[in-house]
Prior knowledge:
By secondary structure, the chain is of the alpha+beta class. It has helices spanning 13-27, 34-42, 46-55, 100-114, 129-134; strands at 3-7, 57-63, 66-74, 85-91, 119-124, 138-147, 150-160.
Amino acid sequence: MTLVVRAGRAADAAALAALSRAAIEQSAAGHYSPTQLAAWAARRSEEAHARYLATTTVLVAELDGAVAGFASVALTAVGGLVPGEVDQLFVAPSAAGRGVARALLTAVESAARAAGLASLTTHASWRAAPVFERMGYLQVAVETVAVDGETLTRARMEKPLG
């Protein structure tokens, strides 16, 4: 098994959109209702991912040459994101448990440190919160977010970069 983390490219937008929809619909299925999952997944368009790739630092994990996951972090304020905000972490359901999320979050931390950031923050789904916790993030609040008529809860988490 070869796991490589690289910078995201504009050409990745379609693959990242499909991967995030699969992760939501399959991996998060035990944490949210079918209508919540459908509303969340519907937002994962190729166009949205093209914007993320153009405005944030997107890191892509490849497992044996195939896209297995991705994460994005704002290294400067952009849109509604603050510096150090980990906006996305998605792993393909077929790659779960193979170190993809750990590799991505380690790369996010390296990029944040290189940018001079003192901490990271995220708004993690209930599926992702344990992954962030294993990487040293602490839950500081429970939040709700409205997504196309559905209300989803999530954990706001923070990690100092000491």
